[in-house]
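Two proteins, back to back. First:
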Amino acid sequence: MDKETVRWEAEKNMYSGIVTGIVGREMHVLEAEDGELGYTKAGDTVYVARKHPLFQMIDEKEAATLRYGVCVHEALHQVFTNFSYMQRSIRTLSRTKLLKTELDIRMYCIFVNLVEDPAIENMASSVIGGPPLAALGYTIRKIYELSGDFQKGCRYPIEEVINALIQFGDLGILKGNFSFQSARGIFLKIARPFYDAINEMDPKKRIDAVFPIYAECARLWAGYSEKKKEEMKILDIGTGPGFFPMILSEAGYTVTAVDYTEEMLEKAKENLGKYTKYGLERVTLQRMDAQNLEFADETFDVVISRNLTWNLEKPEQAYQEWMRVLKPGGVLLNFDANWYGYLYDEEKKEAYEADRKKVEEQQLDDHYLCTDIDRMENIARQVPLSAMERPAWDTKVLESLGVCSIQTDSEIWKRVWSEEERLNYASTPMFLVRAEKNAEQSFQLGDVTVRRGEKYQAASEDGLWYPAAKPGDMVTEGGPVVAYGRIVREPEYNDRKEQIVHYWEKRSESFLEQRRSELANPIAKRWMKEIEKQIPAGRRLKILDVGCGAGFFSILLAKEGHEVFGIDLTPEMIENAIQLAEEENADCCFRVMDAENPMFADETFDVVISRNLTWTLPNAEHAYGEWMRVLKTGGVLLNFDANYGKEDVADTKGLPEAHAHFKVGNEMLEECERIKLQLPISRKNRPAYDVAVLCENTAGEIRIDTSLGKRIYLEKDEFYNPAPMFSICAVKQ
């Protein structure tokens, strides 16, 4: 080995120690490939360049310091980046066709990095100090100085966007020095979401914030910004006195504006003639019902509305109509508020009355006194949306219509309202719902093509799901059904996984509270008694808790002196488990890991244990095989579960008032029921199915106990489980 290589190996070893100290677990530094300066990904490895064009411009001492800074930077990615969530987000966006090509995915990853890098550098001081922080600072400054020589020209607009982001982001947040005016202009259009993203501490939210940035840049890249305004067709629904047509026509757009009342249309005509220089030249006014539009399908590029949806008798039908008249790829913009929610909510009523008092104290015009408030409240009581929580309701409806992309902005009022409006309507803040229509033109069902908006008879093909009368309905035969979005087949394996993870993410907080209470309850001792019946006694065991959730079993077993590893696919559950173990002073090790694919060597554990997990798995047979694989010969698999496929999870009639399910809410329980129905194990006869699978996976003695629930759930309290639980104890041969 030559001297240079020896020095490089020593340098890598030094960096490995530094990175290990920053990350808090054993890490390795390897040589970067493909001309990269440095990079990292999920795992225990950081990559840094041994040679790079940048190093040719500086001496070896500077190059070594720069490599040091690169190592520190990538180590911080390991600390502040949720890699699994990033991968899931890319899969989700690809599956929903928000990322449509390999180029889309590659560019999206670039944008993720461009947001992550400055965010992480901003957070560096909270994790490191001394030489590592100094090396990081040196590296950022040096790369910024040297980067100019590489910015010789841009062939495509997207490269100019990247140049802009690099200049303002990764290579100097506040030092923007643009070679191209267009790059600067593009960056200014996305500056706000970019800065919001890099200042976000939560890695999930930071990654989520990337897509609007990417989407905006993609639109600019595709030349949408150059599209002639007069070619765009905009529909303003419920135009009232013509506010949107006035500002849009002045900006150069062609607008069709509709309203149900002739009086409003006359006022709009008057305002357009009085306050715009174009009058009716760019605006067409028509009397029309917002819930029954008289336009052909796919007529408009944009549908816009303000303060209308709340007072419609059939708002769901209205949304169907608005999406129908949109072109594929078109955008719906709906500005509204929970205007009369105070009629149904005491807290909102108090906030509303506080607004009235504050307006009076500041001697401002009370906007509510400018209307016939009694009449308006009477209308509000007769329409459905006054009692709904919005924009959550809007999002749910649009999802049921198969909309490609839905975004809500609950801060829009801060940017568009005057100070007087903010004070008048503080308790009813305006929100924006933005929905993009799927760009697909038609759908193929076997030999039948179904077009958007077309009524069809649902085929009886197994596993084919359709948008039905309401969200969650499954149509297996009959009809008719109207298609406004994608026809979705029964979810593939990975799709199911994502659905399940997303669901348990939402329930993770309630699980933490429930498990904390359960540990302090006599039920904990009953569970330990059941476990101790089945596992070897008198020695310290190495135990794997599969689907550990918030760590209930892991903590119980660790307190008994066992070495316990808890795994769960949901990162939030693992975070909660770590927190609860610290509270209970229990020494456990928790990792984010797939229960169906545990990343442990063969014959690692004395015991594998699980509770209420198997029924949630897309491939339970494979899971059983893996659990037996990681068991030592003579080891014990202990699985507590129930035949939940035969139970209606959403049926709470037999549960006590204090039960945890009432805290979860019907919506979450119904979502659980929908996911459950997609899983093959829900159609199995259990535990007979489990026994048959285990017999094929080297299990020797198998013990079944179907009376478990009667010994555990003695009281009908918050922990009560009416489903007949069973235990399966299988010994590996």
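And the second protein:
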Amino acid sequence: MHGWQPTAERLPMYAVTADLLKLLGANSTQFVIPVYQRVYSWDERECRDLWKDVMRAGRNDQPHFIGSFLYTPEAASSATSMKRMLLIDGQQRMTTISLMLSAFLDWIEEDESRASFLTDVRPRALRKRYLFNDDDYLGEARYRLVLSQDDRETLHALVSGQPLPDARSKRLVDNKGFFAERIRAKGFDAAAFWRGVCNLIIIDTELDPSKDNAQLIFESMNSKGKPLTPIDLIRNFILMSLPSDRQATLYNDYWRPIELTFGRESEVEFNAFIWYWLWLKVPGRKPREDEAYEEFKSYVQDEHRDDDPEGLLTELRDYARRYACLFMGREKDPDLGGRFDRIASLDVKPIRPLMMSLYTLWETTDRLPKTAFARICDYVESFLFRRAVVGRFSTGLNNFFAGMYRELETSADPEEYVTAMLLIHGRGMTAYFPTDGDFAEQLKSRDLYHRFSKSRYYLERLENWSSPKEPIPSGKYQIEHVMPQSIDASPEWQVMLGNNWVDVHERLCNTLGNLTLTGYNQEYSNRPFRDKLTLKPGGLRKSHLHLNDAFDDCDTWDEAAILGRADALAKEALEVWPYPNLPEQVVDAYRPKKAAKPDAGWTIEEHHPSFMPGGECHELFGALCEAVEQANPDWEQYVAKYYVGYRTGGRRLRIAIQERTSTGSLAIGLVRTVDDLVDPEGRAQDKRDVQNFGSGCPTRVDVRTVADITPVLALVNQC
């Protein structure tokens, strides 16, 4: 058992060592999983471990400890009623053992001669003793174990042999199947199995509600099961201290709708949602995603939100619904839903709190009409995509957007405010909105196929923009290189491209002008251009797609044709992803009155080209920046002449990053000395005797591959 350890102050009154079967077979006792508990989550790996433990204990005929079962009485019961116990810790083990026993009893009840090892009880009595209460109890009261709503009917069907419900729990079904398969395997030793079950030892702990803090104990106990996830901990934190009837009401009215919003496998998305919600709720504090529960708990306690759990749950439920509409495709309004889906597909996560804030403003006030909200969405999409095209990273945007949504509620004109804020940063700054010139040039010239994850997005977007009422289904078409990716064995293509065909192919093959969509990618293959034009069916000249209009009267596909199509599509792109038309004097009014000192005009594009797309250090630099930003969201990136740095508190340097173009690696300058660092792998290099590193950093550490980032980040985070 990890975490909680008994102390003189905390030791429950009724903690005893006991046989598991004694607990399961207690007269007129039912174990109920509280509403705040997570659903059943064990999979085959945990089942396999338990099976091995049981069989080992049976073969050796030795006791085997499987952890603590901790429970508390649900309420005072009459002399004739059943004792209902809320199972606080032990759900996963008790459920799995019930499935194991059910599979075993199914097997021996088929042929009672298989139970010859039993000397004092009939096989059918075991099911009544360990899986059911007395026959005098009806309905749900018959069952020894009552799970949460999502799992309850499935477990009851499995232990009683009844038909499974339509909405069954796959984990429960699969895990019973796992045990059934082992029990029916050749060589199964039933007597050893039963000895193993009889040898399972537990700490049987019944809490005294008047003396023991069930919430603290539950939160810290994590015996053999999977670690509690943020969704488990937050649900427990809000509901556990409340009376049972209050728990049930708040769970059914508020918490269960939240869980249904995210689905059964909700941990990752729910954790992300809580993190983004905290960015909205906690000004001045930069929450870490891996500490979502701790941040949530601190916020609730600091702001006394635990005094009104219903109000807190109402807010969480509403924001969860908005989050699902924005980023999980649940929006019913088609005009807004399409915009949300496109923004979500760009996968720039720092935008999420701002979008949640805008959605709330639109939904709950009259300050942001739908038309204005839609225009903001268009500008946000344009901002994100233009930055992707010109190779701008999302690092640093958390802080930029945080300032926006924290001022949004007081803004006189939300649309003007957001639009202006998107435009206040110049070309050398973190949150630069690429101008038409920068965007069009990069869109036409850069490789938009390799190392560019938005290929399908932008081609589908260009296509659907031309016919918004008849959009093509996402993912239905393949990306086609009109000039094939390989033409070394294609004389016709070489002749068409001219004497410099090698250069033309290398420069233009993966650029905008040469890329399109088709449903006939396999048929086209590396065929000559004339064949691609006239192929039946599916020739480019017969295509109904707007992207293929250029081929209607085109007989030659050479450099001029490719560049001409790129120019035409780039011109359209300026309309698809527009630059906001806001007067400069309006934008100036939103600029800080005392702007921070510019970084002498240094830019990544001009002074650190190896960090840009196609550069020797581009991918490694991007991965490192993403990791640094994730771990330290309050750090701000800036550009100096000889390095790219991160700082806090105005201009306080944290780390400096330099490229090593000859090796494609990165050298990181740290502001702490090697003497001050915990460096078990010895990565840090002392640079105090060589005039330091970068901008006065006494320590250097190298990043040569992506695998180096995690251990190096451990050193970075000490700065």
